């Protein structure tokens, strides 16, 4: 029988040689921001892997037993008692938002709400696409919706495509030629959206520090921005399709429909896709991730520069022998995530 001498303090993997544990720590990016089992405290790469750990096909037996009695299937937290769990579930499972059509808001006229001061910290966006080109596969934005953190509509309008529509994709969008007859020109839509997002902040300052510019929340934001022919600073994007804790264990993105059902507790996109409903779902996912209660770390990176910064620098600054002399707990202490946790959006206000 193999004798494992070196155990990772985060995910509990075990190694025969200390050098193998060190290599594991360099590429695992363990930190207080990773999802953790509420029973055994094991770190997981994503909520999907945590779900498999407690309720998957081959769950950890002890953890599965406790979770079945005291765990929430949505947020995956474990509570002190079934009574505490029951009280929690009333607020954790959210009601499905009403489609904007049911709210009788006018599609033909844009809805714009003026914000004074900082206003909401985040704006969610969703677009519905129709098809252009000979085969109808070219995505054209035909409808766009923006909401604030309180799920209020702040901009909603049909968009006039710059080329002819050859496929309205009615079975998904519910749109017809009549809907786009008096739609707003794309250029004007761009101007109004950017005005809302930048909030009077300069583009240069927004790209560097955020300033008064607002965070942009959505699912597969790159697709929406491409179809709007717009760009927005990467440091201000909060994409539920690319946030590592919400991705599959192989780092492939889930659909918004899946994430909403698994983490919010209701179904969307069961018939026509409604951009307001999708906006609300993305915003709720963002706020749920932002509300994660993680311990403060005095050495936490305070900007969104994870992509450009070498997050393994603390390991690289030490020699191999020095690392191998460190305990598993000490190795964990110098480990850092390779993404910015959204909980930092709450603890760290964007500087004006």
List the helices and strands and how they pair.
Layout: E1 6-7, E2 14-15, H1 18-28, H2 47-55, H3 61-70, H4 82-92, E3 122-132, E4 138-147, E5 153-160, E6 165-167, H5 170-173, E7 184-185, H6 186-198, H7 203-208, E8 215-218, H8 221-228, E9 237-239, H9 256-263, H10 275-290, H11 313-316, H12 320-324, H13 328-333, H14 344-347
Parallel strand pairs: 3-8, 5-7, 8-9
Antiparallel strand pairs: 1-2, 3-4, 3-6, 4-5
What does this protein look like?
The chain has 352 residues and is an alpha/beta fold. The protein is 33% helix and 13% strand. It has 14 helices and 9 strands. It has helices spanning 18-28, 47-55, 61-70, 82-92, 170-173, 186-198, 203-208, 221-228, 256-263, 275-290, 313-316, 320-324, 328-333, 344-347; strands at 6-7, 14-15, 122-132, 138-147, 153-160, 165-167, 184-185, 215-218, 237-239. The strands form 2 sheets. Strands 3, 4, 5, 6, 7, 8 and 9 form a 7-stranded mixed beta sheet that branches. Strands 1-2 form a two-stranded antiparallel ribbon. β3 (122-132) and β4 form a beta hairpin. α9 packs across α10. It is globular, with a radius of gyration of 23 Å. The N and C termini lie far apart (60 Å). The model is unreliable at 102-109, 114-120 and 302-312 (pLDDT under 50).
């Amino acid at each position: 029988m193999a004798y494992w001498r070196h155990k990772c303090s985060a995910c509990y993997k075990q190694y025969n040689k200390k050098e193998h544990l060190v290599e594991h720590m360099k590429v695992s990016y363990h930190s207080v921001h990773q999802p953790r089992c509420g029973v055994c405290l094991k770190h997981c790469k994503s909520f999907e892997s945590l779900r498999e750990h407690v309720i998957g096909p081959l769950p950890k037996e002890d953890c599965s037993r406790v979770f079945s009695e005291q765990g929430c299937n949505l947020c995956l937290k474990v509570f002190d008692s079934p009574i505490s769990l029951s009280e929690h579930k009333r607020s954790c499972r959210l009601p499905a938002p009403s489609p904007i059509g049911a709210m009788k808001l006018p599609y033909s006229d844009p809805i714009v709400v003026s914000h004074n001061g900082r206003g909401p910290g985040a704006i969610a966006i969703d677009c519905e696409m129709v098809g252009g080109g000979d085969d109808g596969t070219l995505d054209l934005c035909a409808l766009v919706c923006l909401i604030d953190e309180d799920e209020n509509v702040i901009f909603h309008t049909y968009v006039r495509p710059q080329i002819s529509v050859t496929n309205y994709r009615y079975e998904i969008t519910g749109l017809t030629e009549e809907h786009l007859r008096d739609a707003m020109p794309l250029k004007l839509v761009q101007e109004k959206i950017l005005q809302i997002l930048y909030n009077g902040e300069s583009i240069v300052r927004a790209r560097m520090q955020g300033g008064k510019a607002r965070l942009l929340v959505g699912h597969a934001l790159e697709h929406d921005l491409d179809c709007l022919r717009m760009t927005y600073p990467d440091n201000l994007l909060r994409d539920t399709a690319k946030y590592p804790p919400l991705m599959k264990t192989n780092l492939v993105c889930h659909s918004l429909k899946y994430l909403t059902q698994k983490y919010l507790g209701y179904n969307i996109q069961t018939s026509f896709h409604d951009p307001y409903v999708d906006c609300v779902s993305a915003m709720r996912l963002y706020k749920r991730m932002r509300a994660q209660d993680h311990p403060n770390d005095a050495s936490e990176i305070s900007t969104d520069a994870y992509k450009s910064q070498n997050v393994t620098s603390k390991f690289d600054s030490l020699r191999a022998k020095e690392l191998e002399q460190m305990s598993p707990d000490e190795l964990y202490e110098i480990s850092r995530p390779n993404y910015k946790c959204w909980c930092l959006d709450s603890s760290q206000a964007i500087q004006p």
